[in-house]
Amino acid sequence: MKKRRVIILHGWTNGDISNMPEFLPDSEKNWMGWTKKELEKRGFEVSTPFIKYGYKSNYEDWEKVIEKLNIDENTILIGWSSGGAFWVRWLSENKKYVKKLILIAPAKVIGNTDKALKEIRNLEISKEWRTQWKNFHDFQCDLEIKNRVEEIIVFISNDADWLTDAAHLYAKEFEAELIEIDNQGHFENHRRPSPEFPELLKVVL
Questions:
Q1: Cα–Cα distance between 87 and 85 in angstroms, integer?
Q2: Which partner from 42, 88, 107, 145 sits 20 to 30 angstroms from 134, CA to CA?
């Protein structure tokens, strides 16, 4: 029997991700590593690719890493923040069919780009990378994604306004289930009670 396949993609960081256990997707110190371990216990094949210098890599650099993976109609894609934005852009461009798309606090520049860029200064994204960040996230969603994915789920909490706007936009455009969880910010470790993420595990299963 073919194993069920999940790919978990991290978000944008302001430095080498290999030095950041909170963002390293294999680390059990965060919800990505915890989710991977729990899914593997249940027989899933889980990939957690990472873009070491994601913060200074453009969309095409991320794409080269992802296209080494086998993604088909039985694959479940999970993306956190910019990782969620990547999946939406990639699915918009490649017209792939997948089983599920799960977006955790997904990023996207909406409407007033200057306002969004002002907001991201709070995330300490270096000035030299802000244009690159904008280019990565400013794209047109293909609304037909909802017809190529069996189920789309969006998680959001009490995040920055531009991120909650993005989550609601994705949910509306893709007719997705929107799950709101209290007091977890951008789903970083310091905003969550532990690495455990049972709500995510439930929707994958």
A1: 5
A2: 145
